[in-house]
Amino acid sequence: MKKIGIIAAMEEEMNAIKDVMEEIKQIEIYELVFIEGKINNKECILVKSGIGKVNSSRTTQILLDKFEIKYVINVGSACAANDELEIGDIIIGNKLVQHDFDITAFGHKKGYISNIGEYIKSDEKLIKELKIKISKLSNVNYKIKIGTIASGDIFCTGESMKRKINSKFGADAIEMEGASIAQVCYLDKVPFIIIRSISDTTNGRNQITFEQYLELASKRCGELLKKFI
Q1: Could you give the residue ranges of the DSSP H alpha helices within the chain?
Q2: Among candidates 48, 36, 47, 44, which has minimal Cα distance to 4?
Q3: Kind of pairing, strands 69-80 and 3-8?
Q4: What is the count of structural domains for the chain?
Q5: Whether 111 contacts 118, CB under 8 Å
Q6: CA–CA distance, 18 with 34 (Å, rounded to integer)
């Protein structure tokens, strides 16, 4: 039976998902710990990738190689690039882009990847199903937005950098793994969706904000994921 694959970059993000899982057991492969269990009686497998595009790409490929995966969900935290988003809000990435991928010397736009393009789109069916679940939520005191997520191997703290990424790519949020996970899933023809909660905004001190609100952001992703699955 195919399982739902869930990837988180950090321990706090992973634990928030583990908290809503049942019948848990662990398997170690290439020093990665894969947690098998059920969410709402559906078979899932959860793994922590580590931070950054290489770690997340490697983990995604191992997940797809070693297990029968129905689709992949990436969950975690992100920095707001859209001023409408506040700490604790949720962003669902329907488009993913690597903001630090640059072959403009060859006449392409920044973010363009050969044989892929500039943006990678999440699975339309998963987005549609998630929209239906969101429409049925009540008593939610935070925003849930479907938009564009930009990924790169840098923790964005500068306002000018945020504005540049927002302007160039129409990015609503910035993080370090989503688009690389999307790229691997796209190439392997496996459906995926990216769910992020805002943990910080660019204020020069958002490392502190990130550490303060990471648990809140992770918990909200876990709650939405449980409702979705």
Answers
A1: 11-18, 53-66, 124-135, 159-169, 178-187, 206-228
A2: 44
A3: parallel
A4: 1
A5: yes
A6: 11
AA letter at 198: I
Given the residues 12, 13, 89, 123, the one annotated as active site: 13
Whether 83 is catalytic? no
Give the amino acid at 120: I
Q: pLDDT band at 207, cuts 50/70/90?
A: very low
Helix (H) or strand (E) holding 35: strand 32-39
How do residues 146-173 score in pLDDT, each as one tens digit? 999 999 998 877 788 889 999 999 999 9
For residue 171, the enclosing domain spans: 3-228
Q: pLDDT for 83-126, tens place per residue?
A: 888 888 889 999 999 999 999 999 999 999 999 999 999 999 99
Catalytic site includes residue 200: yes
The length of the chain in residues reads: 229
Catalytic residue among 12, 123, 175, 200: 200
**CATH code for the domain of 217:** 3.40.50.1580
